Hints:
Blueprint: H1 3-11, H2 16-39, E1 42-50, E2 56-63, H3 68-80, E3 88-89, E4 97-103, E5 106-111, H4 120-134, E6 142-147, E7 150-151, E8 179-189, E9 196-206, H5 211-221, E10 240-246, E11 249-254, H6 267-279, E12 286-291, E13 298-299, E14 303-304, E15 309-310
Parallel strand pairs: 5-6, 11-12
Antiparallel strand pairs: 1-2, 1-3, 4-5, 6-7, 8-9, 10-11, 12-15, 13-14
Helix pairs in contact: 5-6
Amino acid sequence: MTKKWREACRKLPLCGGCLAALFLCVCLLGGCAGQEGAADEKEISVFYINQAETKITPITYGLKSTGVDGQVDEAISAMKENPVELSLRTPVNGYDIVGWNLQENLLVLDVSEEYKNIQPTTEILIRAAIVRTLTQIEGVDHVSMTVKGEGLTDSLGAPVGPMNAEMFIDNAGNEINSYEKIWLKLYYANESGDRLIPVSVRKVYNSNISLEKLVVESLIAGPEQDSEGVYPVLNPAIKVLGVTVKDGTCYVNLDDGFNTQVYNVTGDVVIYSIVNSLVELPNVNKVQISVNGATEITYRESFPLTTVFERNLDLVESGD
């Protein structure tokens, strides 16, 4: 209570009962203010790695910061500290997060070079813990990672683009670290860039990544080096912002790189390279493509992205 407030109270002609009532009101107001301050905390789950390095475990944490920048800093600081539970450890171990910046809803984390020395199975857990922690902050939809400013690649050398929480499913035990092998049928361009050629390729992939995302990333990476007679279609700088499937329709969200064509291929070859490759998967019948989440775009002035595309075998080069 301030000096002026105390003086004002002394001047009031209050009886003993009134004074007690006034004191009670002041206490209640003070208590409400304290409760309001506690309610302002935003609770998130900070994910840590178990000592056996087989899974990640959440611990509830109350963010005291209000702005997105402060909350990101606070969440990163929380992840850097080892939790009280001795069975868990920080996901920031053996390397450091040296900086970050927020580009619209994409949070880009830059880590130190020691990150490259982390075992592949542990590295997956680290990414899962970081992404699932930070994407709980309002204004952060995806997380991307760089190592000293260079794009992060996985243990197979494939680029790791923007990640969201849905990419890291909860598996039991060691399954979160497992890799699987699969044959994919992908459609690349012929030499003149006006027809599609199907190619069967064997891929080794992490079981936490969806097959739909694997297909799109494989198309962006282009044909294998020993492939003959087939040529890349998609700009290798494209970032995959999201790939989801609902009721047989695969929704592919790409960044602005999709609009920049670096190879001499026709527009329909670009569209149906993606569509035909995805429809080869048993759970996909149709495909819709968006750029930064927007479909009110006409690709190359001929292909409105509001269209839900179906397989087109007329573009496939005969004889295959």
